[in-house]
Amino acid sequence: MAEIEATTGGILALALPFVAAALAPILKRIIGAHAAWVLALAPAAAFAILFSFLPEVSSGGVVQFGFDWIPAFDVRFSFRIDGLASTFGLLITGIGTLIILYSGGYLKGHRDQGRFFSFMLMFMGSMLGLVLADDLMTLFVYWELTSITSFLLIGFDHEREKARRGAIQALAITGGGGLALLAGFILIRELAGLNSMTEVLAAGDALRTSPYYLPIFILVLCGAFTKSAQMPFHVWLPNAMEAPTPVSAYLHSATMVKAGVYLLLRMQPALGDTALWTTVLPAFGAVTLVMGALLAVRATDIKITLAYTTVSSLGLLVMLIGVSTEYALIGAVLYLIAHSLFKGGLFMVAGSVDHGAHTREIDRLGGLARHMPITFAAALLCALSMGGITPFVGFLAKEEIYHALEYGDAYHIALMAAAILGNALMFAAAFIVALKPFVGKLPETIDHPHEGGFTIWFGPLVLGVLGLLGALFYETYHALFSGPMASATYGQPVEIDISFVPHLNLAFALSLATIALGIVIYLASNGVRAATSRFLASVGWGPDHGFDQAMRGLLRFSYFVTNRLQSGRLDYYMTITVIAITAALFVPMILGGALPAEPQMPQLRLPEWLVLALILVGIVAVVVAKNRLTAIVSLGIQGFGTALIFMLLGAPDLSFTQFMVETLSVVILALVMTRLKLSPADHRPLREKLPDAALALAGGAGFAVFLLSIVQRPFDPALSDFFEEYSYAIAHGKNIVNVILVDFRGVDTMGEIAVVMTTGLAVLALIRIRVGRRAKAQPDPMETTP
Questions:
Q1: For residue range 489-527, what is the model confidence (pLDDT) as tens digits?
Q2: Per-residue pLDDT band at 777 (split at 50, 70, 90)
Q3: Integer Cα distance of 111 and 104 in angstroms
Q4: What number of H helices and E strands is found in the chain?
Q5: Which residue intervals define the domain MrpA C-terminal/MbhE in the entry (predicted)?
Q6: Cβ neighbour number for residue 199 with a 10 Å cutoff
Q7: Strand (E) or helix (H) holding 162
Q8: Distance (Å, whole) CA 781 – CA 769
Q9: C-beta separation of 251 from 347 below 8 A
Q10: Spatial separation of the C-alpha atoms in residues 252 and 783, rounded to whole Å
Q11: Terminal Cα distance for the chain, rounded
């Protein structure tokens, strides 16, 4: 009974966002501004369902459900809820509920708000399916759905070129990584025989010791790095800020960009703890951490600043996953949850500032605290957590990160230096966003700044308060969320006891040093911005410009290939097609040693010899015909000869079908030839005809040899016996051929009838067009004048 309830609840949680997405445009038209409140019930209900699984999940249990999807290929529509999936699912649905409400206020009055809700909820459902999916192919389907729906959301304002470019860039990069991930999953399925995450996690060292570990590792990392914006694939994330702010607050801080991190956390017990894993991930993560934070301080737009801090945070997470120790994974889990809370809140603050002051440029903002006090409070709460100040969940994460890296070898020292520098830069960026727009004097350029409505300030305030409550009630926080998540990631039970009370140790000292360095960077942010700009200018164009170059190169290459392959000449297309078919016939038989033995001359009766002679006469008639129309009519002789052979062999129904098809083919070809502007005959010289003749003979020989190889194989009567046994018992028909056509393959027969009907209509259209043109060419005698 419990299993049935889990299956029903799990499927309902997965379906609710998609159902709401289908209803969103209708609800928006019917109830207008209140649609957000109704639509937010869907993710809220999904959150409640997932929350109901917490008692079992927090005790180390796993909830699984699903059903067979494509049994022939061992593909199941199956899902798995453990500590990792549960916490991700709660973040997706919980923050998603706040985002839907926020979108209702932020996009109030927008003509396409219903469409926006639909896209957002579709993405929410896709992301939820991704983190809960157990079967590898199911996970990939949801993975690509997140790319497609994010493309729709980033390009929501499709009339702006920058929005279109950002959407295409995100789709190209994440979609390309998705194809690599598909290849990796296929290798895991076909070479390791593992079809689901449950099997992968239960296989132990099977993948690590596999001779195919390297290609699997590279392909999985390509999928994760492109999705989670690791350098040099990071460029799509800042450009995705062209999307409306609710998209940035949800997709590009709390959900989609975490998909790659989720995959690495999920696969860590199976792929991690190898030399490659502990080298490649920390290297990419550390570079992304530092460079992303530098670019964040350099930016002047609040959303761009936050976007680059997201890149930096993702680099920090990847670096910690690469270290792979117990404390490093605990630090990654704590930071991931904290980041989702404070970054989602800060992005909503950015939208609130833009909504109330009509600009996001930091240099043009100031003094908003008096006019937007609730937004300022929310910004300050989120910034304190991002800066790692106690008592906020960001402090717990930062302390655990430093504790995980406090070793004396060069490897950990280098990673520690990257973590300190990156965290200090992100500290400065957090307070650049949370303080500079709100303190000081209000610029004269800002006219009537105002606080947004309830739905605009409610979301960021809730996330900021949760960042505080999580640290204050750390025991409950660890028991329900971070502990089960870390245990699922590490592959064995993990106990987390870190609290908001500082301990006088090396980690706390490094934390204080980070804060001090962050304050210095904050005070010198203008100088840091200028120095970073000069450095980037000296480097020249980077990955973003490189993407444009790559796209232009792809277009030029496509143009070149198209001009070569699509020349517009029918003879060229026919030649390529016949060459390909001939190669497909001969090459497998030659390489596989399947060429037939030399056939023996059959004992034929006189009528059969006469039919063969008729076919040969038809072939000669085609070759020696003086005009095309005669050749086409002569071509029908072979089909009629084949129909006679069917009749002589006792298959009159098949013979009759062949007569009809051949007659129809000849009529259609003749009519088409009359419509084309061709010379009546082929006047090419012999040297141009011979290659075509040779190719035609090769193609015919290929089919002949292929058919000989088929008929020389031992006859398997299993299918014939099946139809003989069941034609009357099941279909109540004594004519086996008719039963096969009408019952066993009735849909196929219906398709053939549709083809014949369509062809007949096409012939009728050709005839009527020709008759119509002739009638127009003749003057009407009633209209002629003497």
A1: 998 899 898 999 988 889 999 999 999 999 999 999 888
A2: low
A3: 12
A4: 33, 2
A5: 690-768
A6: 18
A7: helix 161-192
A8: 22
A9: no
A10: 74
A11: 97
C-alpha to C-alpha distance for 247 and 161, rounded to whole angstroms: 18
Where are the alpha helices (H) located in 524-651, listed in sequence order? 525-539, 543-565, 570-591, 606-624, 628-648
- Give the other-Cβ count within 10 Å of 756's Cβ: 14
Q: Hey, what are 782's tokens?
A: 């009633």
Asked if 243 and 156 touch (Cβ cutoff 8 Å), the reply is: yes
Q: Which residues of 323-338 are buried (b: 16+ CB within 10 A; e: fewer)?
A: bbbebbbbbbbbbbbb
69, with CB counted inside 10 A (0-12, 13-18, 19+), is middle
How far apart are the C-alpha atoms of 297 and 291, rounded to whole Å? 10
**pLDDT tens track for 243-268:** 899 999 998 776 888 999 999 999 99
If we measure between CA atoms, which residue out of 198, 177, 188, 191 comes closest to residue 76? Answer: 198
Q: What are the extents of the domains in the chain?
A: 605-676
Dist CA 524 CA 517 (whole Å) = 11
Task: Tokens for 543, please give them.
Answer: 């990955």
The closest of 9, 2, 10 to 79, measured between CA atoms, is 10
Instruction: Catalogue the long-range contacts made by 53-56 (C-beta closer than 8 Å, 24 or more residues apart).
Output: 53/6, 53/9, 53/81, 53/86, 54/86, 54/480
Kindly give, in sequence order, each residue whose CB lies less than 8 Å from that of residue 617, ignoring residues fewer than 6 positions away.
637
Q: What is the pTM of this model?
A: 0.80
Please count the other Cβ atoms lying within 10 Å of the Cβ belonging to residue 269: 22
How far is C-alpha 50 from the geometric centre of its chain's CA atoms? 25
Tokens of 738: 């008719």
Q: Which residue in this structure is represented by tokens 């499927």? A: 11
